[in-house]
Amino acid sequence: MRTVAKVKERYNPGLRLAGVLLGNYDRTALLDRDIHKMLKKRFGDEVVFNTTIGRSVRMRDATVRGVTVFELPEAQVQSQQFVTLIQEMLNRGSKRKDQTLNPLPDEEVLGRIANG
User: Fold this and answer.
1) For the residues 70-99, what does the mean pLDDT come to?
2) What is the value of pTM for the model shown?
3) 64's torsion region: left (phi>0), alpha (psi -120 to 50) or beta?
4) How far apart are CA 23 and CA 33, in angstroms?
């Protein structure tokens, strides 16, 4: 949150966070599932994305090959996770709150994150 505050102060005062994303997530690991639940409990469903990006060697493989996960046939699962994230982000980013199920978090919610 300190980095976000610096970016807002120095470069983009209108910067808004879309939410908290769990990456390198292993849904088979109890600890990862507990962390996801803990974050949702602490910050609320309006901040923590339901979508997670799973841990996968396919991501590194795509980087080494110089392609995206969308271009790597073996990374179909990972590319679908990103598509789902994009859909969730677009939903949150709707300009009118009555057109979205989960709008961008307001400044009060983000303040709770910044202040612990």
Assistant:
1) 82
2) 0.68
3) alpha
4) 12
